[in-house]
Design goal:
mainly alpha, Growth Hormone, Chain: A, 2 domains, two-stranded antiparallel ribbon, 2 strands
Length: about 650
Amino acid sequence: MTTATASSSLVANNQPLEQPSPTPVPVTRPLPIHQTNIPRVCCAILASVTTGGTTYAFGLYGGALKKKLHLRQSQLDTISAVFFLAGFLSFIPGAYVDRFGPRLGISIGGITGAVSLMSFWLVAKGFFPSVIEGDDPTFVVTVLSILNVGIFLSCALVTGSVFKIISCQCGPGSKGSAVGVAKGFVGLGSGAYACLFESIRQPNMDALDFLPLCAFFFITAATIPSWITLPSKANETFVPDVLTPLHFRVMYASLSSLAILIIGNALLGLYKDSGNENNAESSPNYIMTGVLLFVWIAPIVSLLYLPQKSDWTPEASTGGDAAGSAQVDDNTGYEQVTLLNSNDVSGSNNDISSDNISLEPIASHADEESLPGDEESVDEEDEEDGTGQGQEVTGTASSYSSTDSKNLLQMLQTPSAWMMLWITTILAGGGTVETNNLGQMVESLGFSDVVTPATLALFSVAQSGGRIITGAASEASLNYETRRCCIDKGIPRPFYFVAASVLAIFSHTILAIATSQALFVIGVTLSGIAFGMIWPLMVLCVSEIFGTAHVGANYMFYDGFTSAAGTFLLSKIVAQQVYEDHIEPPSSGKSDGVTCYGIKCFQQTHIIIVILSFTCVATSILMQYKTRNVYSKSNISRP
């Protein structure tokens, strides 16, 4: 049969010839900055510091609050504990972010956070005499506790928005590093704020004046940039991930410089307190203020001007849609935005340029033709590995999620969710035992008081380093040439839960037997690394195993629950009970009846954490096995 005859036969049968799919071409010129993910990621990283600076800073002004309002230690502990117990409600701000978008989440979170902080400051400073009048401080404790809940939920709004942006806007190869960087800034936030406050502190200011500083940055580093930079929920569009290793090297340099300044400031404080210098009131150091702000803000702004990834080439579209339209690739499940050369598309609009990208909002797939795998199934493994049987399929403004999304209730019906909840609760609790009881640990072991701020600074920097390294390492290891971790190629992210659990075992074993300052400092530092490792893993595993459509509520459930439950279980119940059980009676002449001395004061606490960490090792290995198909699919679709 000749070619002409074959063509006539097809036309006669009303079967038009299939047109070849257009071929995408690499982007050889930088895209306009607003058509990339860089402004959104910059906004998220800038806002991340505001949450860490507020969340972990109560110890900086708690003593001044106690003295100003004549509170008992138990009343001060109540105000502090309520802040973390509000974590049980943190899924609510996360759900708000999923519903209304990160722009409103960060903007409103910044405003309500600033209002709550300023209200707390005004009450604590005595600007409302009716609140603090009377001999019984119960009412003022109640008011400050309520304001603390408002501060925590505001931080949760910002935190949920930050990691919603990164989870949705960063693709394979950069998401882990971006999460690690943002978590690194969260970890260093309180230290950076403390250094800033000390550098601008006037002789007549007390520690409570730290709160207006936090309120100021809530507005200037969170609310204003997000309102200007981020699109509204209705206008969210897919933008390509053009971040390069250079962008992350700049961020690592910024974090390293901040860490050096924080440690240097802590050591300088130790030097002054040791009596080597007179203890006269120091004057403000505005040069240090400028250096800190430059090291924090300038590298983030510079990301807008660094070279973009120049070889971003999306996959070919499977249909005959117009150039630049959003597609769902049948093999990877990723939505694609194809950049087409106008010469490759016969009859295309003359408006389409060779590197034009569609910025049309991405519609939900729920109303489109069903995707393969939507049929209901009771196969537990399919539900675990994200193939999507019987699950809600929800579109997002990102093209970088290959997993059908589960909402919070659906997520909690899977064994993997509960495995990760157990692991993160124990490891988070092990870290808060250190931060909440470090002063008592130093006192019980008979070390100098100057050891406390030094080890706190080391813990802060260590846990920040753990966040950064884990985010970057877990991203890189997804493509390692190994088949020994339950998947066909690479190392899945849950493996790092195993590593964090093993590190927690070593660190708390050292702390259980430490009687020298050197061994104690080593144990605290290793504990900080183990504590820091879990935070980027929570963001990444939640978004990859359970999808990004509900990542705000799902991640914030973990973020809040682990802090609240871990702190209450290990730091409040276990550590406090063990400490009080080993206080010698005043009649013994070895104690005042309220202070414990000796290694036994916290030894049993560390042993209990070691035992629980062994269960985390086993649970992490099981979780790695249960989620193996998620990461096998991810590796198949990775370059």
